[in-house]
Each structure stands twice: as C-alpha cells, then as structure tokens.
Design brief:
heterodimer; A: alpha/beta; 8 strands; B: eight-stranded parallel β-sheet; two-stranded antiparallel sheet; 11 helices; 10 strands
Chain lengths: 264, 314
C-alpha cells in the first residue's frame, strides 16, 4: 500500500496562510510528520484561493520547501497544467502528476508531460460529463486512459487509475461501484495499471470521519487498491493499512509490522 | 521459431556485505534477480565457500574426513592455512571447547585461538560459537574484541542472546550472523531488533537454519527463496546475504556416517556428494556463503558456482 500524504494542500487553513506569507515552516512540519508516519509520496496542492496566474510560482515554492524537509517524492496536484509543469521542473526524483481525466485534451497535455519528466501519473475515471454513475462507465473511461498512456510509452506500473470516491452521505450508491472498479481495473491490461483513491473524500461532511476513512481504506485494499491519498497523520489509519498489508500477504509478517510499514 | 525470454522486473536488490580486509576480502550479495539469472539482472558477486576449522580435534568425524586435515587437527592456525590451500574463500572457526558439556573453556582462551587463526590467514574469518546461547553471549564479545578491525563474521546471534554479540560486533567493526529456527517471520523480526541497536543492515548475515538433503532441506529452500523474492520486492529486513551451515548438518546424517555397504556404496564418495548436493541446492535457493567440511566438497561446489556464473547465451 502506497500512502500519499494529503496534508500539504492550500485547502487547509495553516497551509493556506503559509502560502500567503511564504512561511515554509508549516509546510515543512507536515512534510516531516507525514514522512515519519509512513507516507511514500507527499501530495502538494496550492489550493483554490491562489490565483491561476500565481499557481506555477506557488507550486514551485511548495515543491522546493517540501523536498527540503523530506526525501520523499511529491504528488504534484493541480488542475492547472502550468502549475504542474512548474512543480515538475524543480522536483527531485520521480514525481507523480495528480492528475489527468479521460478528456482527450487533458490526456494530450499531461501524458506527454509524464513521459518528458519520467513521472508517474494519476488518471481520473471521469470526463467533462462528470463522474460516471457505475463501475462499467468508470472502466470505459479508465480504458481510454490506459490506451492513451500506453501510446505515450508510460509503463502501467506508473499509471494510477482513480475511480473517484464520492462522499458516502450524498452518494451512497457509488461506494460499491468504486470497489468494483478497483477490482476490474486490474483486468484492463497486463501488466495491470495501479489504482489510487482520494480517500478522505468518502467522509466529507460526515461525523466520525476517521472511522469512515479507515473502514473504506481496508475494504478497498481487499479489492486490490494499490495507493491512497490520505490523512497519514491519522496513526490508526496507517496501522490499519499496515495490518491489511500483512493480511493480504503483501509483506512478510514479523512482530514489528507496524514499524516496518512506516520505514519502507 | 523465435522464443521470447520472459523477464521478471524486480524493484529492489539484495544488500551487499563485505568481509575481511586486504586482497582476500570477500563481498557477497547485491543481486537484482534470482540466483544465476544473468539474463534478467545483475549478479555482481558469486556465492562463496568456507571450510570449517575446529579449536580441538573433532571427536565424531569419520576417519577419511579427519585424514584430509592430518597433522593440523590440533593446531587451528595450521588447520586454517590448510583450508586456504584447499581453496577456501573464508575460514570458519568453530569454538567447540567453550561448550559447557565439553571443557567449558573461558572466553579469553577462545579469543586467543581466534586471534591466532586470524593472524594465520588472509581470507576473512567466520567465528561460530558452541550454540549454547548464554555461553556464546559471554564468549563472542571477547572474541570480537580480540579480532578488532579484522571485519570478521561472528555468530550465531539468536533472539535470546543477540544483544551482547551485536554490541561486540558494533564496537569492533564485525558483521553478525542472525540465526532463526527455520522461520522467516522470526528471521525478519531478529533483523529488525538487531538494526534497532544501530548495526547497519549490510552488517547482518542471515542464518535461516537449514536441513541437509533428506532432512528437511525443502523447508530451508523455500524460506531462502521467499527471503530472496521479498528482498527483490523491497523488503530490506530480509535482503541480507544468507549463510548456509551445511557441514554441521550433513556430517551428522545417516548417509554421511554409515560405512561402505553394498547397497549404498563407498562412504566417502556418498558423504561428499551429500554435502555437495545440499550446498548446491541451497545456493540455488539464494544462499551466499556455504560453510563446508570436506575439501573435496569445496572443490565440487566451487566448480559448480564457476559454471553457474557464466552468462547465459540469450
């Protein structure tokens, strides 16, 4: 299980203020904490309050500051192609692009970028029409991304299909469809692409969010989920991911399994 | 018809360990694929072979095995030189006299013998305790001290006695053998405990415990194989080189101990074959250092390794 730390995002108040004041400390603090807690990538997102024309410069700053504090690669998260490329330019190591959709113009923008910078990329199983209702429609869009990624020479192990998780309190019927998509994405190609979810979305505006997140993570892992953008500062969530990893025989058991998961 | 060679893509590699100092230094590990699959990845170093030296003339060896070391059996330093003459890559000194049921010799004496053996040969030295955990915990740190800076391999450290042995290795620049009873989970846990004492993972060699051919070799085989695939998939706590204590298992088997019989043929030939087959099988599973007793076995195993190290023609 590859955990991608979600915390360096301008949606959070402390990061929003850090960006505003160009104060590196909050960014660094979350970079270090998430690294210690078992993240394998750190998601960086300027948030919606930064003006589009400022986003490239802010992304560049965020990536630099994050990588000063942590040896981990970043998951460069933006809807603005210029911001993504600005982040990739200063990134050290193998980045992840977050994300393209199945819209042709987006794939034609981001897939060449992934190839050029040797980055992994997340492909959202949606297009301009929105999020599909069921697993079959999600898989059809995933297949388009797989075919386009393949045409750009992107190895399937570096393509992460995101079936799009919706909040359980407003879109309850999507839960089983997402799980089914995770199962079936593995049949789209050989070797199969990987799968990722934006985990915290499942519990938006619900009480007891951590419980919902943890439960959904383990269920999705049982369906074959490879990665999650998640709140790795929730130690119990990380413990559950580590334990599911052991039970799924993804890693050889030892009594210190909670520790080895965080050290990887 | 053209045949497409299937190649597995591994994400990681085995750890590399260097033993000894100077020209006869030995490095093992570092592979990026399963044993001898040269077409698939790198095998930077061949597996190596050690011969055993006892600190006292062995009581239970068959005559033909003792005869190979005639004249040096009472002199560990001379015996070690003999092993090097026979072509051993390393010498493994076994401290039998410290065993409480034997002489219960004190640590200082063991340290003296180890120092004498180390001074006699240029190849790296392995020192094996008597297997009584408490006694080894008391003796091996003294031995480590006497061998300071020689970059030896000391063991076996178990979950019960690793602390003092590992401390001795850290203080004197040695590597440690981490021993577990045919259990991959315990092996991994012991490696974690040892690295928590701040010994680098590259300074650990795994003794998974083995069985000789006909005595549970398949358990050892599958554990070593699983460790290797774990290592190649990124599990650093199972990525250390593996030592195979072949001689100690083979020479207590019925097949090695039974004299010439019409059905089983000549004892010496049979015993050597038993040692060679056990070692070769476990090297193919992923073993790195084979510790043998008969010089003929060493010759055959080294020949086999040399052939397996030739790159494939595809």
């Amino acid at each position: 299980m590859i955990l991608i730390g979600e915390r360096i995002n301008g949606m959070f108040k402390d990061i929003r203020e850090a960006i505003l004041n160009r104060d590196p400390e909050p960014v660094k603090r979350h970079a270090v904490l998430q690294t210690q807690n078992g993240a394998r990538y750190l998601d960086v997102n300027t948030g919606p309050t930064v003006a589009p024309e400022d986003q490239p410069a802010v992304m560049e700053w965020l990536v630099k500051v994050t990588q000063e504090a942590s040896p981990l690669p970043c998951c460069i998260d933006s809807t603005n192609p210029d911001a993504i490329e600005a982040g990739l330019k200063v990134h050290r190591g193998k980045a992840m692009i977050n994300s393209t959709t199945a819209d042709q113009w987006k794939m034609d923008t981001y897939l060449p970028m992934a190839a050029k910078y040797g980055a992994a990329i997340i492909g959202l199983a949606m297009n301009e029409k929105g999020v599909p209702k069921d697993a079959n429609d999600r898989l059809a869009l995933a297949m388009e991304i797989v075919a386009n990624a393949d045409a750009h020479g992107i190895p399937m192990e570096e393509l992460y299909i995101d079936p799009l998780v919706l909040p359980v309190n407003v879109a309850q019927d999507h839960g089983p469809e997402v799980l089914e998509t995770i199962r079936q994405v593995k049949l789209l190609a050989s070797p199969a692409p990987r799968t990722v979810v934006g985990l915290s979305n499942v519990s938006q505006r619900c009480p007891n969010r951590p419980l919902i997140n943890r439960t959904f993570l383990v269920m999705a892992m049982a369906c074959g989920l490879d990665a999650a953008i998640a709140d790795v500062e929730d130690a119990e969530l990380v413990d559950m991911a580590a334990t599911a990893n052991i039970i799924l025989n993804k890693e050889i058991y030892c009594d210190s399994w909670l520790k080895t998961f965080r050290q990887r | 018809m053209t045949v497409t060679i299937a190649r597995e893509r591994w994400s990681s590699r085995c750890l590399e360990t260097t033993l000894g100092t100077g020209a006869r230094q030995v490095t093992v590990g570092g592979e990026t694929t399963l044993p001898f699959l040269h077409f698939e990845g790198e095998i930077p170093h061949p597996p190596v072979v050690a011969l055993e030296v006892f600190d006292a003339p062995p009581q239970e060896w068959p005559d033909f095995l003792s005869a190979a070391y005639e004249g040096v059996l009472g002199d560990p330093a001379a015996w070690a030189r003999k092993c090097v003459e026979y072509g051993a890559d390393l010498v493994a000194l076994r401290l039998t006299r410290i065993h409480p049921d034997s002489e219960n010799a004190p640590a200082e004496e063991a340290a003296r013998v180890a120092a004498a053996v180390a001074a006699a040969v240029e190849v790296p030295l392995i020192v094996l305790g008597c297997g009584v955990e408490e006694k080894d915990a008391a003796v091996l740190p003294e031995v480590a001290n006497a061998l300071a800076g020689k970059n030896c391999l000391l063991g076996c450290a178990t979950q019960e006695n690793y602390k003092s042995i590992v401390a001795g290795c850290i203080a004197n620049g040695h590597a440690v053998i981490a021993s577990s009873p045919l259990d991959i989970n315990l092996a991994k846990q012991l490696n974690i405990l040892i690295t928590e004492m701040n010994l680098e993972p590259e300074r650990i060699v795994i003794d998974p415990s083995i069985g000789a051919l006909g005595y549970g070799i398949e358990y050892a085989y599958s554990i070593i194989e699983r460790m290797r695939t774990g290592a190649l998939m990124g599990d650093r706590m199972l990525a250390m080189p593996v030592i195979l204590l072949v001689g100690q298992e083979v020479w207590k088997t019925k097949e090695a101990k039974t004299p010439d019989t019409p059905e089983w043929g000549e004892q010496e030939k049979r015993a050597v074959l038993w040692e060679v087959t056990t070692a070769a099988s476990l090297i193919h599973a992923g073993g790195h250092i084979a510790v043998l007793r008969h010089p003929e076995s060493l010759k055959y195993v080294k020949e086999h390794i040399a052939k397996m190290m030739q790159p494939q023609q595809y």
